[in-house]
Amino acid sequence: MRVAMRCVAAVWGLALTVLPGVVFAADPAALPDLTGHWVGLVGLGLFVLAYALVIAEESTHLRKSKPVVVAAGLMWTLLAVELARRGQSDALTAAVRHVFLEYAELLLFLLVAMTYVNALEERRVFDALRSKLVRSGFGYRALFWLTGILAFFLSPVADNMTTALVMCAVVLAVGRDQPRFTTLSCINIVVAANAGGAFSPFGDITTLMVWQKGVVPFADFFHLFLPAVATFVIPALLMHPALPSGAPNARGAAVVMLPGALGIAALFGVTIAITVTFHSALHLPPVIGMMSGLGLLQLYSYTLRSHYRRDPTRTEWNFDVFERISRLEWDTLLFFYGVMMCVGALGLLGYLSLTSHLLYDQLGPTSANIAIGVLSAIFDNIPLMFAVLTMNPDMGLGQWLLITLTTGIGGSLLSIGSAAGVALMGQARGIYTFSAHLRWSWAVVAGYAAGILVHLWLNADLF
């Protein structure tokens, strides 16, 4: 049930990234409301059926991309037939092209980021870090803080799930005889990774999309640094007394990074710098900078492989960037396509406009943004953030930063509230569980409240 809930929430969230494009692709007033028309009802039914199959993936073994890709094609076919009958084919063409462009930008951006992370993993960067921590000789309490701090500062660059998995591997290696240490450290890592991702456009898909849409400039995200620190530190301080004393036995051999590891890490930093510069100074879409960085990685791959070509016995130099690309999770990327196209069709049918202003019409922006953060513990932060972006309420920079913060850290309230939490439940199965996290949710709530209060206090001039 938890897996199904997360699957639906994550997919719906990524799909909503296309909605602003749909809204501006054609004049909504000029398009018919098809919510009560048979085309709209059939389209909605196809969408629901596709998601039912997605939810049942574990039992049917049907890859999640297949039903949504088929449903997307059928939904747009129905729209095309109906709008052609009404003489509005041009509006449909503009809308579908805009939705597809939104997907293409997201696809290529994620492709580059995932390729770099895969390359760093293949060059054993994360293995070397894990080995160093396992063999460090630190005590349980020191490792609790060290893995949390590293998760906090790694997640703004790498995604929070990858960061959490690396740190959890350390915890599992040193804490196999101390389940309490493992449980508390996993909670701490989830909170830290989500908090760290909240103050960087590269830390989470929600912050990435906020930045891509131009709602918050790149530099302004760092107004959330101290609120994010409070969100991480307060729960950690509350959990600290429950940690066992003593130290684990240092074990395992040292892991040496493969040639080119540091060079790839440096290129990743250069790619991020290029992306920010292109977007901020030249007003180019962020994906242009990311693709330029991929080109640099391709050239570096050629340089590394030249050593292998001269001496095939030196297999440590055999690095192929296209092999890294081929190992991406293509089912997930195609899944994004199907979902984004499905929800784009729902937007054109009129269903999404029915709920576009409900929340902000009933509550003030501060209360609404805090409530949305709490809801992200259940429904995932991505759909909620992009519902807000779609509604585009009249808010100052402080409120946009508030919703960025709350949707970033709200997922830590429950173990199922973020990709990091779900991943760690699988990695530390039977130790880090939903109920184990729930027992300490009061501490995470304290951190959630502290982060919000720090933001409201420090950044009051932005509201």
Layout of strands and helices, then pairs:
Layout: H1 2-15, H2 19-25, H3 38-55, H4 57-60, H5 65-85, H6 89-122, H7 125-134, H8 140-154, H9 160-174, H10 179-197, H11 205-212, H12 225-239, H13 261-280, H14 286-310, H15 321-326, H16 330-349, H17 358-362, H18 365-379, H19 381-391, H20 397-409, H21 419-427, H22 434-438, H23 441-458
Helix pairs in contact: 1-16, 1-19, 2-6, 2-16, 3-5, 3-16, 5-6, 5-16, 6-13, 6-14, 6-16, 7-9, 8-9, 8-10, 9-10, 9-21, 10-12, 11-19, 12-23, 13-14, 18-19, 18-20, 19-20, 20-23
GO molecular function: antiporter activity
Main location: membrane
Transmembrane segments: 35-56, 68-87, 99-117, 138-157, 221-243, 255-278, 284-304, 334-354, 366-388, 400-420, 440-458
Continuous helix count? 23
What number is the mean pLDDT?
82
**Integer-rounded radius of gyration:** 23 Å
SSE class: mainly alpha
Organism: Magnetospirillum fulvum
Subcellular location: Membrane
GO cellular component, one term: membrane
GO molecular function, one term: antiporter activity
